[in-house]
């Protein structure tokens, strides 16, 4: 009888001893997360909301992150600054917005004539790219977790038809990151304009052209009302990887299970975002064409000029910065192998399907 009573008390005592440990492993933590993207886009901003909900679900509501659309608490192109100085614990943004801070951060998002979403993730996760990005973000007291990709973006909206490279000269075009450097080489006048400010700038005539994302987002922002010509393919942006930038001090204070919840939620948000774009872009494009938008393909001469200018921009940066050269060398070698693999398998299969789509399944 006494033995049973002792075991009962011991069991109760064990539960009491373990309770504080469990509480310590799952504290209530609340973060703020400004985004570089407006609430009007249920794709990229929707991915931010998706991410925060998954973090809460995975931690039984103990770890919550409140998202803020572009400009609500932090200017859209200063999210990394807020993370760096600890104004917010994390931010939803893209590395290529911070070209002025560190040009090599463009590789975290994507550069012209670069990697597809699958290839980008392969480079970041298994090709050495992730370690290189960690080095870069550490300089800003941050780390970055991939949390979405837009897939290949369209070439953009233009008020006039682009027949030759000369037609780009003098054009005031909204375009971010490394793309702006390429357009500058081609004689255009690139402008850094946040997504929420593009339509008013086009409507007032302050811009002649805009490169944003793709049909689904572009339709929502009303670009068809202020420009008639819509260009592709998206050789200048085969994908744009978004990131969850996290203050390193805030990250270090998180319990390991919350860190894993952030990584898992980011991966789920990434899958959902790319799937949403793939499903919705073609439907939106059909609507736009039906409304009279003039869908055009870049002339090959123009694409050749864009590629040549991209090569020059990348090599110029590499010549000035050992850090940029290091990242560029890794990326370039990985890209060469991916293009070879694509020519053997995925790309070859897709080319066949396109060539036979009228006769095939």
Automatic annotation (TrEMBL):
Q: Which GO terms describe its biological process?
A: transmembrane transport
What molecular function does GO assign, one term? metal ion binding
Any Pfam family from its record, for instance, is DctP
Q: Does the keyword Signal apply?
A: yes
Q: Which UniProt keywords apply?
A: Metal-binding, Signal
Instruction: Give me the residues that bind substrate, please.
Output: 153, 174, 211, 237
Domain of life, per UniProt, equals: Bacteria
Looking up InterPro entries in the UniProt record yields:
DctP_fam (IPR018389), SBP_TakP-like (IPR026289), TAT_signal (IPR006311), TRAP_DctP_sf (IPR038404)
Q: Provide the residue positions that the database annotates as binding Na(+).
A: 212
What does UniProt give as GO cellular component?
tripartite ATP-independent periplasmic transporter complex
Question: May I ask which residue range the UniProt record assigns to the signal sequence?
Answer: 1-23
User: What name does the UniProt record give this protein?
Assistant: ABC transporter substrate-binding protein
**Source species, please?**
Bordetella genomosp. 4
